[in-house]
Amino acid sequence: MAHPHTHPRHSVAVVLQCLSAYARSAKPARLAALVPPLPRPVVEVLSALADAVLMLVLAVYYVLEAAVFELLPRRLTSKSVDGQVVLVTGAAGGLGRHLAARFARLGATIVAWDVNDDGVAETVRQVRAAGGLARGYVVDLADRQAVYRTAALVKREVGPVDILVNNAGVAFGRTFMHLTDRQIETTYNVNILAHYWTAKAFLPEMMRANRGHIVTVSSVTGLMGCYRCTDYSASKFATVGFHESLFTELKVQGYDGIHTTLVCPYFIDTGMFAGVKPRLMPMLEPARAADDIVDAVRTNQVTVTLPGSIRYLLPLKSLFPSKLSWALMYRMMQGPQAMMGMKPRL
Ligand SMILES: NC(=O)c1ccc[n+]([C@@H]2O[C@H](COP(=O)([O-])OP(=O)(O)OC[C@H]3O[C@@H](n4cnc5c(N)ncnc54)[C@H](O)[C@@H]3O)[C@@H](O)[C@H]2O)c1
What ligand 1 atom has the least distance to the C-alpha of 190? Predict the structure, then answer.
């Protein structure tokens, strides 16, 4: 379905996907009709070969597409968010406030959600002072009914949400036996369950319009576990599964105008991991991280690690024997030792 907001890069991909779907639907009945005397196993092998050739063509196309879009200036490859409603959870400070500011500068209307009333008011004040549009809502994301109530209020007061940024998160930074049951529940409530409630609240309008974007702020710890993170890291792994499964469902159901972006940042200097001194590289600047996330959203990227170079390290976890991975983590990167310095805020 052609849509004014469909990204040009996406349209070409959709055509290729349609060709691929056609080729798949043509086998084996169509192949069998062309070569009726061939035994069925041969037909199966031929259709598998046809799929393999198609995959090769798609692989070349997608790699070239990624390379070309990497080289083109961002303004040519980015979609506009001007006039769109962008809801940012956890917008009272840290990364969320920077995301709100950046989207607002690009002309979006910001809906800022947070449990911290002073912080959310300050974010709204800053956006408005810079000439942007923003409205704040105090909501505890751990309270499902409060999320649904506030979502209904937003729809009445502002309208449907175009881009949902599930950014709010908590990190208690305690080792397993020091975590209370309540802390573990809070981590899961805020870091993953809230994503279900917000997506359930705002996805129906996106589906009706076949247009929208859901951004899942996960973490590098959502791809590899780390010290003091049995609750946090596990909840972030869950966000990866949530994003990948939702992506698959939307694709299969034909919602080609709804995009999903998973963001997996390394440490960001917001105070969430205060006291941690990572050996690998310094913490990311929150403003810079927000810029990179907004760029990723505007170019409809599906998965982003911050910094991008981290994605070359992650596969080592599966490629190396476990003992070597551990030695790399403990001796070289000194990840656990760095986390030992964390001064929990909560
Ligand atoms: N800081 C890092 O090093 C880092 C690294 C990777 C990923 N992340 C993720 O980035 C996101 C933003 O984190 P940040 O660094 O800006 O942290 P932050 O603590 O500065 O911001 C988190 C925000 O979430 C809000 N929040 C917490 N519980 C809430 C609740 N129940 N209801 C509503 N709002 C609630 C907080 O009030 C806060 O404003 C989080 O999802 C975090 O897990 C952070």
Answer: 31
Q: Which atom of ligand 1 is nearest to the CA of 89?
A: 34
Q: Quick one: which of 336, 119, 328 has its CA closest to 226?
A: 336
Residue nearest atom 43 of ligand 1, based on CA coordinates:
169
Sheet containing 163-166: give its strands across: 133-138, 109-114, 85-89, 163-166, 212-217, 258-265, 303-306
312 is known as an active-site residue: no
Task: Give me the domains of the chain, ranges plus CATH numbers.
Answer: 83-340 (3.40.50.720)
Please choose, from the candidates 286, 292, 330, 324, the residue with its C-alpha nearest in 3D space to the C-alpha of residue 308.
292
Q: Is the CB–ligand 1 distance for residue 100 below 6 Å?
A: no
Chunked into runs of 10 residues, the chain (346 residues) has average pLDDT values of: 42 52 55 70 90 94 88 88 98 98 98 98 98 98 98 98 98 97 98 98 98 98 96 98 98 98 98 93 97 97 96 90 92 90 86
Q: Which residue out of 188, 232, 255, 266 is catalytically annotated?
A: 232
Which residue is it, tokens 């049951």? 181
Ligand 1 neighbour 166 (Cβ under 6 A): no
pTM for this predicted structure = 0.88
